[in-house]
Amino acid sequence: MLKQVEYRGWTNNLLLTNGEVELVVTLDVGPRVVAYRLPGGFNVMKNYAEQMGGTGEAAWQIRGGHRFWLAPEDLTRTYFPDNRPVEFVPDGELAVTIVAPPEVEYGVQKRMHLKLHPTGTTCDVTLTVTNTGTAATELAPWGPTVMAPGGVEVIPLPGKAPHPGSTSNAKSPADYAPNQELILWPYFDFADTRWSFGKKYILLRQDVNKGPTKIGLAHRGGWVGYLNSNTLFVKRFDYREGAVYPDRGTRYQTFSNEDMLEMETVGEFVTLRPGESASLTEQWELFGNVPAVANEADVDRVVLPLVK
User: Residue 50: is it exposed, middle or buried by C-beta count within 10 angstroms (0-12/13-18/19+)?
Assistant: First the structure.
């Protein structure tokens, strides 16, 4: 079902639901998903209360929810004020495309396609940017999702393997090569107790008393999760070997401060000629009544059976 509803001061919003999950996207600004929840349940997305219901602001507003950015990050094109009304094009009862006005200043236009599966909680998300200008432009589509405070993020790590020099069945000299990447931002601190770097997972706990921290990964694991108020949000995405990703090869980035935690997929870095487009796809899923996790054993027991 797709219907127009009021939401936190905005009168023009769409509620997309199949009866098992609800998604709310505002039409007064955007593209912007502002709620993703089980019916009557906890909204896993952060909403900045003081920015709800606003429109037409001169400066960019974080607002919360899931937005559509362009990489690499800068203070101009990336932070373009997406504060204008958007249009929508229904695609049956369970899908819609949100169309933003062209960003004339940078010669781009953004579309966000949202599709619920007929049953369950899965939502397919596609972000598409088109070069509407007169010259080629370099960019990567970027999908940050701002999560509500108080949860813990789970990032799976690649499987471990023995050092080839310590085993008799080393396959080739290539066994000595690295198999994962970790990119650190200047305000990251290894002494930060929000982080746990384990054998199987990285855990990041959102803390309302601590400021910014951020890492990036190539991330070939296919999924990340965020558990908050007994609701598990799972974001799934692929990795293409040989593709060029921004910020030293990061397919996935995560940021947290005292207000929220961001789960950010980043698409391939491409050069678009006039009229060409690039897309970023990801898939969301929700699970209810999930116990809290504190360590890797908990993740194996509670989270892994759900995502696998």
Answer: exposed
Tens-place pLDDT, residues 194-239: 999 999 999 999 999 999 999 999 999 999 999 999 999 999 999 9
Structural domain count, the chain: 1
Task: Classify residue 252: in a domain, yes or no.
Answer: yes
Q: Give me the amino acid identity at 22.
A: E
9: in domain? yes
To the question of pTM greater than 0.90 for the whole model, the response is: yes
CB atoms within 10 A of CB 46: 22
DSSP 3-state of 173: helix
Domain-embedded: residue 256: yes
Q: How far is CA 14 from the centre of its chain?
A: 20
Strands 223-228 and 231-236: antiparallel
Owning domain of residue 299 = 2-162+179-307
pLDDT digits (tens, 9 = 90+) for 67-80: 999 999 999 999 99
Contacts of 89 (CB under 8 A, 6+ apart): 96, 97, 99
Helix (H) or strand (E) holding 249: helix 246-249
Q: What is the CATH number of the domain that holds 210?
A: 2.70.98.10
Two tokens, residue 220: 């070939």
User: Using the 8-state DSSP alphabet, how is residue 305 labeled?
Assistant: H
3-state helix, strand, coil in the chain (%, to 5): 10, 45, 50
Copy the structure tokens of residue 98: 């949100």
**How far is C-alpha 288 from the chain's CA centre?**
20
